[in-house]
């Protein structure tokens, strides 16, 4: 696996994600991106989780707060995953995250 390259024009941001077992895991925010009329967030969990990228629904709450929600519908997850893959393949991640 390739090492992460530094992106000097993007701020580093991490958020806590609460797992089903109640454990809180800090994840690096890769990007927030739109699909249809909703926003989604791609997160990079710690290496010790053994997982790849996690994708959640991103729901703004007020001016500076937000919630992340699991995507429970397989069809929605497939569409969002395809869009994220397309963005990665087209190297659009640097321009999406403001």
The end-to-end distance, rounded to whole angstroms, is 27 Å
Number of strands: 5
Main sheet: strand order: 1-2-3-4-5
How would you state the average pLDDT, rounded? 83
Number of domains: 1
Order of helices and strands: EEEEEHH
Give Rg in angstroms.
14 Å
Number of separate helices? 2
Structural class: alpha+beta
Shape: globular
Q: Uncertain spans, ≥5 residues at pLDDT below 50?
A: 1-10
The percent of residues in helical segments reads: 10-25%
Biggest pleated-sheet summary:
5 strands, antiparallel
Task: Describe the fold and architecture.
The chain is of the alpha+beta class and 98 residues long. The chain has one domain (14-96). It has two helices and five strands; from the N terminus they run E-E-E-E-E-H-H. The protein has helices spanning 74-89, 93-96, and strands at residues 14-18, 24-35, 38-44, 54-61, 65-69. A five-stranded antiparallel β-sheet has the order 1-2-3-4-5. It is globular, with a radius of gyration of 14 Å. Mean pLDDT is 83; it is low at 1-10.
Write the SSE topology.
Layout: E1 14-18, E2 24-35, E3 38-44, E4 54-61, E5 65-69, H1 74-89, H2 93-96
Antiparallel strand pairs: 1-2, 2-3, 3-4, 4-5
Write a compact overview of the structure shown.
The protein has 98 residues and is an alpha+beta fold. Helices cover 20% and strands 38% of the residues. Strand 2 and strand 3 (38-44) form a beta hairpin.
Features:
98 residues, alpha+beta, five-stranded antiparallel sheet, 2 helices, 5 strands, disordered N terminus
